[in-house]
Amino acid sequence: MARRIETRDGRAAIGAVADAVGREARPARTDLATAVRYLLQLLEERAPGGSVEVRVPPFGAVQVIEGPRHTRGTPPNVVELDPLTWIAVATGERVWRDEAVAGRISVSGTRADISALLPVLY
Q1: What Cα–Cα distance (Å) separates residue 64 from each residue in 21, 48, 103, 107, 118?
Q2: 81, 82, 73, 75: which is closest to 50 by C-alpha?
Q3: pLDDT digits over 59-91, tens only?
Q4: pLDDT of 19-60, one tens digit each?
Q5: Which of 33, 69, 86, 93 has the highest CB neighbour count under 10 A?
Q6: Is the pTM above the cut of 0.90?
Q7: For 23-29, which contacts have Cβ atoms below 8 Å and span 24 or more sequence positions?
Q8: Rg for the chain (alpha carbons), in Å?
Q9: CA 37 to chain centre
Q10: Cβ of 16: how many Cβ atoms within 10 Å?
Q11: Backbone angles phi, psi at 31, to 5 degrees
Q12: How far is Cα 11 from Cα 29, in angstroms, rounded to an integer?
Protein backbone atom coordinates (compact mmCIF):
# COMPACT_ATOMS: atom_id res chain seq x y z
CA MET A 1 0.00 0.00 0.00
CA ALA A 2 1.25 3.46 -0.90
CA ARG A 3 2.16 5.88 1.84
CA ARG A 4 -0.68 8.25 2.68
CA ILE A 5 0.14 11.88 1.97
CA GLU A 6 -0.89 14.18 4.78
CA THR A 7 -3.15 17.12 3.93
CA ARG A 8 -0.57 19.77 4.88
CA ASP A 9 2.10 18.12 2.69
CA GLY A 10 -0.26 17.72 -0.26
CA ARG A 11 -1.52 21.29 -0.07
CA ALA A 12 2.01 22.64 0.33
CA ALA A 13 3.10 20.78 -2.81
CA ILE A 14 0.09 22.06 -4.76
CA GLY A 15 0.92 25.61 -3.63
CA ALA A 16 4.56 25.21 -4.66
CA VAL A 17 3.56 23.93 -8.10
CA ALA A 18 1.07 26.77 -8.55
CA ASP A 19 3.72 29.29 -7.53
CA ALA A 20 6.22 27.88 -10.04
CA VAL A 21 3.64 27.80 -12.84
CA GLY A 22 2.64 31.38 -12.01
CA ARG A 23 6.26 32.44 -12.39
CA GLU A 24 6.51 30.40 -15.62
CA ALA A 25 9.16 28.26 -13.96
CA ARG A 26 9.49 24.50 -13.89
CA PRO A 27 8.03 23.05 -10.67
CA ALA A 28 10.36 20.96 -8.52
CA ARG A 29 9.95 17.29 -9.35
CA THR A 30 9.28 16.38 -5.72
CA ASP A 31 6.53 19.02 -5.46
CA LEU A 32 4.99 17.83 -8.72
CA ALA A 33 5.07 14.19 -7.63
CA THR A 34 3.58 14.93 -4.22
CA ALA A 35 0.84 17.16 -5.64
CA VAL A 36 -0.14 14.57 -8.27
CA ARG A 37 -0.18 11.69 -5.79
CA TYR A 38 -2.10 13.68 -3.18
CA LEU A 39 -4.81 14.63 -5.69
CA LEU A 40 -5.01 11.02 -6.92
CA GLN A 41 -5.38 9.96 -3.29
CA LEU A 42 -8.31 12.37 -2.87
CA LEU A 43 -9.93 11.04 -6.05
CA GLU A 44 -9.55 7.48 -4.83
CA GLU A 45 -11.15 8.43 -1.50
CA ARG A 46 -14.05 10.17 -3.26
CA ALA A 47 -14.79 7.34 -5.72
CA PRO A 48 -13.40 4.02 -4.48
CA GLY A 49 -13.57 1.13 -6.89
CA GLY A 50 -11.73 -0.46 -9.72
CA SER A 51 -13.55 0.11 -12.99
CA VAL A 52 -11.59 3.14 -14.25
CA GLU A 53 -7.83 3.62 -14.16
CA VAL A 54 -6.58 7.21 -13.91
CA ARG A 55 -2.94 7.52 -14.98
CA VAL A 56 -0.68 10.52 -14.48
CA PRO A 57 2.72 9.35 -15.72
CA PRO A 58 5.32 9.16 -14.39
CA PHE A 59 3.97 9.83 -10.90
CA GLY A 60 0.98 7.64 -10.28
CA ALA A 61 -2.16 5.78 -11.19
CA VAL A 62 -5.27 4.79 -9.27
CA GLN A 63 -8.31 2.68 -9.95
CA VAL A 64 -11.59 4.35 -9.07
CA ILE A 65 -15.37 4.12 -9.46
CA GLU A 66 -17.38 1.10 -8.44
CA GLY A 67 -18.07 -1.47 -11.11
CA PRO A 68 -16.26 -4.31 -12.82
CA ARG A 69 -12.75 -4.54 -11.40
CA HIS A 70 -9.83 -4.80 -13.80
CA THR A 71 -6.84 -6.94 -12.80
CA ARG A 72 -4.70 -7.79 -15.86
CA GLY A 73 -3.59 -6.20 -19.11
CA THR A 74 -4.85 -2.86 -20.36
CA PRO A 75 -8.01 -1.75 -18.55
CA PRO A 76 -11.08 -1.06 -20.70
CA ASN A 77 -11.64 2.35 -19.04
CA VAL A 78 -8.57 4.56 -18.87
CA VAL A 79 -7.95 8.24 -18.28
CA GLU A 80 -4.44 9.55 -18.92
CA LEU A 81 -3.12 13.07 -18.57
CA ASP A 82 0.10 14.91 -17.83
CA PRO A 83 0.89 16.09 -14.30
CA LEU A 84 0.16 19.80 -14.78
CA THR A 85 -3.15 19.11 -16.51
CA TRP A 86 -4.14 16.70 -13.73
CA ILE A 87 -3.33 19.25 -11.05
CA ALA A 88 -5.26 21.95 -12.92
CA VAL A 89 -8.46 19.92 -13.37
CA ALA A 90 -8.24 18.29 -9.94
CA THR A 91 -8.02 21.69 -8.23
CA GLY A 92 -10.63 23.39 -10.43
CA GLU A 93 -8.11 25.70 -12.09
CA ARG A 94 -9.17 24.30 -15.49
CA VAL A 95 -12.30 22.52 -16.74
CA TRP A 96 -12.22 18.85 -17.77
CA ARG A 97 -14.20 19.38 -20.98
CA ASP A 98 -11.90 22.16 -22.21
CA GLU A 99 -8.78 20.13 -21.50
CA ALA A 100 -10.24 17.05 -23.22
CA VAL A 101 -11.21 19.07 -26.30
CA ALA A 102 -7.69 20.54 -26.37
CA GLY A 103 -6.28 16.99 -26.41
CA ARG A 104 -4.61 17.18 -23.01
CA ILE A 105 -6.76 14.37 -21.59
CA SER A 106 -6.90 10.94 -23.18
CA VAL A 107 -9.92 8.78 -22.34
CA SER A 108 -10.97 5.35 -23.47
CA GLY A 109 -13.98 3.32 -22.45
CA THR A 110 -17.57 4.13 -21.67
CA ARG A 111 -16.93 4.86 -17.99
CA ALA A 112 -13.81 7.00 -18.37
CA ASP A 113 -15.45 10.43 -18.06
CA ILE A 114 -14.60 11.38 -14.45
CA SER A 115 -15.56 15.04 -14.85
CA ALA A 116 -18.42 14.71 -12.32
CA LEU A 117 -15.82 13.87 -9.66
CA LEU A 118 -13.77 17.00 -10.28
CA PRO A 119 -12.46 19.11 -8.78
CA VAL A 120 -11.33 16.94 -5.88
CA LEU A 121 -9.82 19.91 -4.07
CA TYR A 122 -11.77 23.12 -3.70
Answers
A1: 28, 5, 22, 14, 13
A2: 75
A3: 999 999 988 766 666 678 999 999 999 999 999
A4: 999 999 999 999 999 999 999 999 999 999 989 999 999 999
A5: 86
A6: yes
A7: 27/84
A8: 14
A9: 7
A10: 17
A11: -65, -45
A12: 15
